């Protein structure tokens, strides 16, 4: 049973035919063909699927799409500006070479953007706390902290 | 003739160097293209050994075809740096292609350290020979000595003249076999090699471009999920297919023996169908695992093959006669790779041909094995390697690829995407085996180690696809009955079992068992447990002989490079202040006793009320020979340190009589940001030595440094992992 639903993603309004209990993650990846939000656990335990929902970073893997039809969703793809310039957090991840396999970057960047929107001079511990949900198996944590601080200072 | 050709269709001129990617380095497992200590080629490969190519096109572009797959180790940039240096060519002009069967060489598996060594060195040799061929042509044309000429971005420059490769080659296609190059620019000029050149792929990642196998989309692609059985040996008795087929979303229920999968147009519906199928399936699943037991005690009761791996002097007599003796038993539990992105694959079966997109670490061996499983000729099976999430050994990649293929064959004509769930990955990947290491040592009257005995209990450390389908998970559930894959590669258990110290009397013995859980290679294989044991033991022995732990190790070392690492570490620790409840611990090892050197220190703070340990900071000094990319090397080291700390403090695969019970990030926690220490890495660059990867160098020493630091803080000796808080709560100091 599918329904038509309106979604506001990265500044555009989309009308989508989907079962209303479908988690937002699958709609973003499959219907909207976005690569940023990743499937990591589907259990709200790892942060791979994070998106900005009205500015706050939230996992999208269990969030029914019907619950966000009134929200503004921003994904990794929506961070760069219209002419393609990267958001300062994205740029800082490149500058600090804060990646190994890169699977976790979506969640890290999205959570860091949400953090900097509220706190423009976070301490190491504040960064650690904000990113506590985000799993990284490759161990790039120390680089991520440097990248977030670098972005904050720009 | 040439003019005519030019008038019609001019061929694209190039120089192509065929070479061998396998065993180009003395270190690698018995290669046929030996090189000397500095990486110089000592021979040329026969025609049938050529399996890699480096091509310089007339427009100056350089292509390297290499069979390795990027796994976050930055191999791609290392290979590009090597080629750029020898060909004096901007990195932008260099393209590195990764594995695809039929296009790139059969290179076996990507395995951390050896990837950089063998791939990069082979490419360096090929690029240097290509340069020499080009300069030779130019030198003939112009009647000038080669020494007066140089190559730069696809041009040959000589005194007051230059010529593009386009002109120089004039449509000629030169195909040569690698020859011994006379000079490596990378050893002297080092414009690209040895510099922290940034990886180029991170931008695509931060922009959310298509990077991973998980991101692949094809028109008409359908979604698959596997319906997992309750245990390794479960047999499907029935499934109420009629009930499942009532769902309008079910495209197909794939049932092959006890292998069950569902296909749907929509991914979420595939998940729902899988959940429903789980409820509808009836299994015969006898409880076969040893649940509720002490794993360490249990493993010693298993039948084992006992072998003496190394014997030197007379360790029994030495131990008997020694002034002071120490013995201890160490344990490391089953650990999982626990990739952040669960395994995934896309497969298509069309007109009798099978296509699979996979993040497998070895597409050729997988193709061989998969073809046998699906009973198809190998050349009708096409595999394309696409990056996945960092896996650190063999995770579920090969299994997911095989399962996707099995389902695609049952549903021809459309791409089938199989995404493993978190529970699939946590519950079904092949784990790094649990191990026990028992050590005995004796000190002589000078407080030096005279005798050493080591006994190891371990399962095999590698069970990769090897042509026998039983190495692939779904084979266990098909009707054919492929049987248990057995122990696999035994050699992994003894990796680093011999201490890299001078000890006159020594014996190392192995007890290889077939353990209860599925096991295969995990970062560093047996090294992790062996170094954890040896370096904890060295700490105890140093204390017994009242010697500073670094001095004690230096006294037992005769390798200057080991000593240099330890001294550098000592310098870094000057002035570190340790407060109450805190401790500092040290460790050292040389990976495989023939690769990268690593000295490590950890600063921990212990809460004696809760027993919890916080790693505050870790330092390492690494000597990986000639450094190709210092930032890449540091990144590997930092990651290894954090991952090892996580293994030591948090991780343990648990199971009951039925199956694995640690199925998600709550039951199998790993380090999260609040747990992670600050990390600092110093690189000792040795240009005259061959480069060695450092992907595994930190694993053992990091854990040993942490447990030694815990002892320093509390007087509690941790000999079983993960660190047990209860033990720390009982600390007296
Ligand atoms: S995939 Fe959503 S939190 Fe892990
Ligand atoms: S870089 Fe691999 S999971 Fe974070």
TrEMBL record, chain A:
Domain (2Fe-2S ferredoxin-type) ranges: 3-79
Keywords, alphabetical: 2Fe-2S, Iron, Iron-sulfur, Metal-binding
An MF annotation (GO) of this entry: oxidoreductase activity
Pfam families referenced in this protein's UniProt entry, alphabetically: Fer2, Fer2_2
Domain of life: Bacteria
Coiled coil: none
InterPro entries attached to this UniProt entry: 2Fe-2S-bd, 2Fe-2S-bd_dom_sf, 2Fe-2S_ferredoxin-like_sf, 2Fe-2S_ferredoxin-type, Beta-grasp_dom_sf, Diverse_Oxidoreductases
PANTHER family: BLR6046 PROTEIN, OXIDOREDUCTASE WITH IRON-SULFUR SUBUNIT
Protein name (Swiss-Prot/TrEMBL): Nicotinate dehydrogenase subunit A
TrEMBL record, chain B:
PANTHER family, A to Z: ALDEHYDE DEHYDROGENASE, BLL3820 PROTEIN
Key word Metal-binding present: no
A Pfam family matched in the record: MoCoBD_1
Residue span, Aldehyde oxidase/xanthine dehydrogenase a/b hammerhead domain: 207-290
Protein name (database record): CO or xanthine dehydrogenase, Mo-binding subunit
Keyword Zinc: no
Organism: Kriegella aquimaris
Keywords noted in UniProt: Membrane, Transmembrane, Transmembrane helix
GO MF, one annotated term: oxidoreductase activity
Ranges that cross the membrane: 12-32
């Amino acid at each position: 049973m599918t329904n038509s639903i309106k979604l506001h993603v990265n500044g555009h309004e989309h009308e989508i035919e989907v079962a209303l209990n479908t988690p937002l993650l699958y709609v973003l990846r499959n219907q909207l063909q976005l690569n940023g939000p990743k499937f990591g656990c589907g259990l709200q335990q790892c942060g791979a699927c994070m998106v900005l929902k009205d500015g706050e970073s939230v996992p999208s893997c269990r969030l029914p799409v019907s619950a966000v039809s009134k929200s503004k969703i921003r994904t990794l793809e929506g961070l760069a500006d219209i002419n393609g310039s990267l958001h300062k957090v994205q740029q800082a991840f490149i500058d600090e070479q804060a990646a190994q396999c890169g699977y976790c970057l979506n969640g890290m960047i999205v959570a860091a953007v949400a953090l900097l929107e509220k706190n423009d001079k976070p301490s190491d511990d504040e960064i650690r706390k904000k990113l506590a949900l985000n799993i990284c198996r490759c161990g790039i944590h120390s680089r991520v902290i440097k990248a977030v601080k670098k972005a904050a200072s720009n | 003739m040439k003019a005519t050709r030019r008038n019609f269709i001019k061929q694209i001129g190039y120089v192509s160097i065929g070479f061998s990617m396998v065993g180009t380095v003395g270190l690698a497992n018995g290669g046929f293209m030996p090189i000397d200590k500095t990486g110089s080629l000592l021979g040329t490969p026969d025609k049938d050994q050529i399996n890699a190519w480096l091509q310089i096109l007339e427009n100056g572009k350089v292509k390297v075809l290499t069979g390795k797959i990027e796994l976050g180790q930055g191999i791609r940039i290392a290979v590009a740096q090597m080629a750029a240096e020898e060909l004096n060519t901007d990195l932008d002009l260099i393209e590195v292609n990764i594995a695809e069967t039929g296009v790139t060489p059969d290179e076996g598996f990507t395995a951390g350290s050896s990837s950089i060594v063998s791939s990069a060195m082979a490419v360096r040799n090929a690029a240097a020979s290509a340069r020499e061929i080009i300069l030779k042509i130019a030198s003939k044309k112009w009647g000038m000595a080669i020494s007066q000429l140089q190559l730069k971005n696809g041009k040959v420059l000589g005194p007051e003249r230059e010529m593009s490769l386009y002109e120089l080659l004039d449509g000629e296609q030169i195909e040569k076999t690698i020859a011994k190059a006379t000079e490596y620019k990378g050893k002297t000029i080092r414009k690209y090699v040895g510099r922290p050149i940034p990886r180029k792929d991170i931008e695509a990642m931060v922009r959310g471009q298509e990077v991973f196998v998980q991101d692949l989309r094809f028109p008409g692609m359908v979604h698959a999920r596997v319906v997992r059985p309750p245990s390794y040996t479960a047999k499907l008795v029935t499934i109420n297919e009629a009930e499942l087929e009532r769902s309008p979303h079910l495209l197909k229920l794939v049932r092959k023996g006890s292998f069950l999968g569902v296909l749907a147009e929509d991914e979420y519906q595939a998940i729902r169908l899988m959940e429903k199928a789980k409820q509808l399936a009836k299994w015969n699943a006898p409880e076969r695992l040893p649940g509720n037991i002490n794993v360490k005690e249990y493993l010693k009761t298993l039948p084992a093959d006992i072998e003496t791996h190394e014997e030197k002097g007379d360790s029994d007599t030495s131990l008997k006669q020694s002034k002071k003796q120490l013995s201890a038993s160490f344990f490391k539990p089953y650990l999982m790779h626990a990739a952040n992105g669960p395994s995934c694959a896309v497969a298509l079966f069309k007109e009798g041909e099978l296509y699979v997109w996979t993040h497998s670490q070895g597409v050729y061996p997988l193709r061989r094995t998969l073809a046998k499983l699906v009973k198809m000729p190998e050349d009708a099976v096409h595999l394309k390697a696409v990056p996945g999430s960092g896996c650190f050994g063999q995770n579920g990649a090969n299994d997911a690829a095989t399962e996707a293929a099995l389902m695609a064959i049952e549903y021809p004509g459309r791409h089938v995407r199989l995404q493993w769930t978190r529970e699939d990955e946590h519950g079904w990947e092949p784990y790094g085996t649990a191990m026990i290491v028992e050590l005995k040592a004796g000190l002589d009257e000078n407080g030096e180690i005279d005798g050493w005995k080591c006994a190891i209990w371990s399962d095999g450390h590698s069970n990769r696809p090897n042509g026998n389908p039983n190495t692939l998970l779904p084979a266990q559930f098909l009707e054919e009955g492929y049987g248990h894959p057995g122990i696999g590669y035994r050699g992994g258990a003894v990796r680093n079992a011999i201490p890299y110290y001078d000890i006159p009397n020594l014996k190392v013995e192995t007890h290889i068992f077939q353990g209860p859980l599925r096991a295969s290679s995990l970062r560093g294989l047996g090294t992790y447990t062996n170094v954890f044991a040896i370096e904890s033991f060295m700490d105890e022995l140093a204390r017994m002989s009242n010697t500073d732990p670094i001095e004690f190790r230096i006294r037992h070392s005769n390798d200057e490079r080991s000593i240099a690492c330890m001294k550098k570490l000592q310098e870094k620790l000057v002035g570190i202040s340790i407060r109450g409840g805190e401790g500092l611990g040290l460790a050292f090892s040389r990976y495989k006793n023939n690769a990268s050197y690593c000295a490590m220190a950890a600063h921990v703070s212990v809460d004696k009320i809760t027993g919890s340990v916080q790693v505050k900071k870790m330092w390492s000094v690494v000597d990986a020979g000639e450094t190709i990319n210092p930032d890449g090397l540091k990144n590997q080291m930092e990651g290894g340190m954090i991952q090892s700390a996580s293994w030591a403090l948090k991780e343990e695969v648990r199971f009951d009589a039925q199956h694995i019970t640690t199925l998600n990030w709550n039951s199998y926690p790993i380090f999260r940001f609040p747990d992670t220490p600050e990390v600092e890495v110093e690189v000792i660059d040795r240009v005259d030595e061959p480069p060695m990867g450092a992907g595994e160098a930190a694993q053992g020493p990091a854990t040993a440094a942490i447990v030694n630091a815990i002892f320093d803080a509390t007087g509690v000796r941790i000999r079983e992992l993960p660190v047990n808080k209860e033990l720390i709560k009982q600390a007296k100091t």
